Predict the 3D structure of the following.
Amino acid sequence: MTPSASPGRDGDPAAPELHFAVHGMTCASCASRVQRTLSRQPGVDQAHVNFATGQATVTLAGDDGARAEQLSRAIDAIGYGLRPVTDDEPPAGDESAAEQRSWRWRALAAVPLAVAVLVLALGFPRDPVASYAAWALATPVQFVIGWPILRSAAIRARSRQMNMDTLIALGTLAAYGFSAIRIAVDAHAEHYFDTAAVILAAIILGRYFEARAKGIDIAPKYIPAQVFDKRAVEKNQVVFHDVAAIEVKPHVKKNSVAVELTDFSVFYSQDSIASAEAALKDNSSKIVAEKGQIVKVSKDKKGVVSRERLTKKWTDWIDYWAVDFNFESKREIIRKLRDEPKQVQMPGMEKPEQLDLTEYEEVWTGDYIFENEWQSFRTKKDRSLELTSVFHECPPGRRKLAVKVVDIFGNDTMTIVEVSVGEKK
């Protein structure tokens, strides 16, 4: 593909860019991992990955920057997919619709089958006929309808990575396999086919709603060359997205440390209040995110417009936050295919021959794995949020703490602070 030119980070009007569609992401953490991997590739100036749209934009470091094939191999190595898209190619609306259709039929098939298995398990416990029927109904849910989840977990396993699909696959396969063995040995035994089927059905239904949500009110805005023209900004022709910052305060007490979340600043913009007011029909309303505030814009029957600010304080943006008290304790290791084939001397051969043997090597990505050692999050019943973690006992010395915040849109932001614990400074 041919790199396109766009304004660079330092104002270079001809910084080449590559645009990709990213496959295999299941959460905002996946997007962060893909973005970090792209940013660390030779010849890459900066990278941005949007989980909601499934798109990645890579700004190259000059005309001799990274190639699409090189970036695709790097992302394949960590278990995701990267497909180049051209500038004249329309946004991934067709792919989004195809994803919705795929999850829709799976949800429509999984839910009634899971309900049937649940009824058989609860209504006819230890009945041989009901047990075999539950086994038969749970099998397509596990291996046919739930195949994308099993496939995703297998891909992550090959690259020694884990994600949510890994946990789902392990849990449901354990319940299904254990039940199959028990029923095969004793048809009157208790089974857990309903557990596997209901979990998969719930996850698949959630994936369908997530696929639908990816296409709601998302319209990519390309920054024009007149981005620095004040008049363009005043006319809402330029909108900046996805900017957030975390402020924390560590508290050290002897050989333990706690972290206080003091601020979470966001500057998201999607649409504008002025544009929403102009387009709004009478007796209707619209939610707008502008300059880090979520505002409900309403127009009554008489055409009178009113605004209601929904995010009254910075904590309203936070859905979940967590602390890793020793961020550099676990390196992120991936398996990478060796470039050169290996010469092997086989018995009966006069000389070594070049054999195409697939070999992998373990490579450190340069990043570390965030380990959740403390967390606070909101639930539907309890909307409160703890802003200070518990004290965590640590060996004396200097260490790096990582704090990750996931906002109400599912975007995650992380910051790292260095502290001294104990007597050593």
